[in-house]
Amino acid sequence: MQPLNQATLTQLTDSALATPSPVQLPRYRRTDARVGVVHLGLGAFHRAHQAMVFDALLQRGDPRWGVLGVAMRTTELADALTAQDGLYAVQVASREALRWQVVGSVLQACVAAREPAQVVAAMAAPGTRWVTLTVTEKGYGPALAALLVQGLAARRAAGLGGLTIASCDNLSDNGRKLQQLCVDAAQHDAALAQWIDTACAFPNSMVDRIVPAATAQHRSDAAQALGLADACALGTEEFWEWVIERRFVDDADGDALAAVGVQVVADVKPFEEAKLRMLNGSHTAIALIGAVLGVPTVADCIARPDIHRFVRSLMTEVVMPHLQRPGLPAYRDALLARFANPELRHKVHQIATDSSLKIPLRWQATVLAQLAANGSIEPLALAAAVWMRYLLGADEQGQAYAISDPLGQALQATAQRRRDDVAGTVRALLAVSSIWGEVLPHDVRWTARVEHWLQVIRRQGVAAALAQLHPSD
Ligand code: CS2
To answer: Quick check: CB of 465 below 6 Å from ligand 1?
Structure first.
């Protein structure tokens, strides 16, 4: 098929959307929908996850789930969405089929750094009932707290009720952490702090869907599928999960969410721990291994028998013994199949971003639990050593790459300064307590094994280390 020239195509907008269409379109009248959700952190993940859940709620005839999508700083996506009336197409790729869906729930978009007043006004609007967040691990700082507190103060001053505020980031206890952040940031006004604590609800939640950064390929595939130019097209997998704690300002929201496939539970912990340690923990290990080997995507990595075996044994022997989620073997097998999805083209360097913030959430508890149980820590000691090798900033073919991480410069300098001193490198990098905590750096069972694996990697490479991990196969 000839690729369509996107420049000459009509742009995706409300008026350009013709029915019938070759793809799934919103079947509700978008003009009836109202903004009920302010989402902070407008990016690919939100658009392929919560926004599609809200789209399903609108589809069921409840007009209260329209979204104001707020990008925290970058303007491109918000402006491109505004030019398309908030519409965008998502390619959903399972092993069996590819389908496209145009999502209609994002009614407006703006940028917090550019239009803070709009965000505050939206939080203080009578129709707003929820705030959802995907601001990444590094987003939970004073700027976020100040924005939320300002919005909540305006809402309280307007005499309105509280909001359900759902963190959807890969943090443990994400709701409770966000609540604490907001209450602390409101301490200058005791009555406001009290109101935030009691009138608002901060459910913990676990969200899951693999959503790689959107690429030009998505845009050209979308043009082909829609016959319209969509600057905001993206792709994801069929699988999704949202497990949320039953803790809402409006109790009825639990049933509404459940009706479209969200799991509303008393305790998110078993789901959150399984997801962070099995999926995200494996992801970070795969990403670092792939980056050092020069293997570009997760699917390429998992197609290699040595990496597949590594990930399967990491999950089975090291991570799973400490998890409570039911059906772990099936959960593991499903994850391995999801990682293998060739349509996703999920770049290892995207996942390696911010590793210094991800490792503590994804690996640390597993290592501590295995040490306490006298279990094997080998796969994660190897992964920690790969991270140290990754910090040198070039793969095993000598191809340089950028390290995108708030601690990146300092870590890279440490790794490079001690290049030829493996023991010194390990000591210095494991001493970073924001990554490894206070206990691990002093446990020789851990430090000696990380040092062992870094020796092997520096002398023989990552593939040799993977082979030595499973010498019997
Ligand atoms: C990934 C996650 O980039 C990363 O760090 O591990 O974005 C992962 O794809 C999602 O959490 C899946 O739900």
So the answer is: no
